[in-house]
Model the fold of this input.
Amino acid sequence: MNGWQRVGVIVSVLWILIAGFHAYDASVEFRTNLAVASMMSCEEVHGASTECDSRLTQGMEGAYSDAWAAGAIVGLGPVPFAWASAYLSLFLVRWVRYGFNQNVRVK
Done:
């Protein structure tokens, strides 16, 4: 593995960890806020009731169970595309450079 590939591996691992955990946290926060807003609107209509509490409980359970999927998609999804675009760019640069280095005689 050359130096640039090692840098790519380090950046990929950092991306997976940081972006994945950030997406997980953002998803939990969004779903938690949504559950609290749903409970508050229920309490405005029905007053404090067990139905409103069950809405909050269901929303909170969904927040944590669905957040892992968001973290995995954001963390792992872009990595193969980044590697593929890097290797495609490298191939194209080498191909163009090879074309300029050809000694072609024009008559």
Q: What stands out?
A: The chain has one domain: 3-77. Residues 94 and 100 are 10 Å apart (CA to CA). The longest helix spans residues 3-46. The chain has a mean pLDDT of 86.
